[in-house]
Amino acid sequence: MAWCPDCGNEYDSGFVSCTDCGVSLVAERPARTDQGPGFVGFLFARTEDRDRVASLLDAAALPHAPDASPDGRALLAFPLAFAQAAADRIDRAFPDLVVESGEGGILVRPFDPTRDGEIRDHPFLREPWPTIEKGGSESRATLRSCLVRGSRAVRERARVLLLRFGPIAAGDLAAALRQAVEQGDEIVAAEILQELASLAKRVPSWPEEVRALASFAGSSDPRTRTWGIRIAGRLRLREAGPALVDLLTGVDPETAIEADEALTEITGVDLGYEPDLPPERIERIREDRRRALLRTPP
Q1: Other CB atoms closer than 10 Å to residue 105's CB: what's the count?
Q2: Exposed, middle or buried: residue 207 (CB in 10 Å: 0-12, 13-18, 19+)?
């Protein structure tokens, strides 16, 4: 079985992404509590750490409730309005613990010098969230730089912080994604594209920086073009439609199939395209694709 980390829907084996959210599925059920809606669950790697944190929060009068995750791991549930304050207090009071987003929800685990040393040595990433938030565009520029230049741990921390800025982070993620694609950094590009896709339901319409990524689909460089096809499909960029339609002929079969799959994601219409169809049939599909794009809202 697999689960969506965003909405919690359960899927049978063979599914790789959520049909509602578009995000990759995870092997572990997301954290749930019995505290009702409006609560956030913090999963602890060790029960003793949960008990230490609970004692601190008792003294600070921060509302919380001990609980257990479906697999029996220690958990504290916080009202949504207090979750960020709890995370910041844990960060400051327990230097031996790390608070991070994970596949099961919000995770609290022991500090790992090998994995986390660079974060602890990066003063900006250790600032309390109110300080980072107050920095506005300057803070976002620093986080954007960390997305493409830091270690894996630094990149993960930077993405978590950048997403706290909400929908405005879409433009910053797009700029970082463009840089990663142009530098040929496949791993970083994949990480950022995943985060952008997770923002889709929170952004009424993509900002110009995101829509400009559609130009990659028309690149003469095969690697950049491949990324353009992936980006257009995952983010449903209608602006890439004409270039994708052009790729249904005159390219290798694999590229043509990927372009058609991206067009299906954008328009919601599957026209049964196959690269070995008769030329006249492919031409009809191309025309149908163009008409479908015209009917697709931006």
Answers
A1: 19
A2: middle
Q: Which two tokens stand for residue 124?
A: 């900006």
Tell which residue, 144, 197, 47, 198, has the closest CA to residue 213: 197
Alpha-carbon span 251 to 260, nearest angstrom: 12
CA 167 to chain CA centroid, nearest Å? 12
Q: Convert the pLDDT of each residue in 114-129 to its tens digit.
A: 766 677 677 788 787 8
d(CA 72, CA 66): 12
Do residues 11 and 24 make contact, with C-beta atoms less than 8 angstroms apart?
Answer: no
Those residues of the chain that have pLDDT short of 50 are 31-37, 103
pLDDT at 257: 94
Alpha-carbon span 288 to 276, nearest angstrom: 18
Domain 31-111 has CATH 1.10.8: no
Check residue 70 and give its pLDDT: 53
- Of 270, 223, 219, nearest to 247 (Cα)? 219
Q: Give the model's pLDDT for residue 247.
A: 94
- Count how many Cα atoms sit within 13 Å of the Cα of residue 102 in the half-sphere of its side chain: 17
Residue matched to tokens 């974060």: 119
Q: Which amino acid is residue 127, in one-letter code?
A: E
Q: How far is CA 17 from CA 26, 84, 135, 159, 202, in A?
A: 9, 28, 35, 20, 18
Q: Tokens 């894996």, residue? A: 152
For residue 78, what are its two tokens? 């916080």
Beta partners for residue 77, in sequence order: 41, 65
* Cα 24–chain centre separation: 9
Q: 74 pairs with which residues across the strands?
A: 68
Of 172, 182, 244, 183, the closest CA to residue 206 belongs to 172
Which DSSP state fits 34?
S
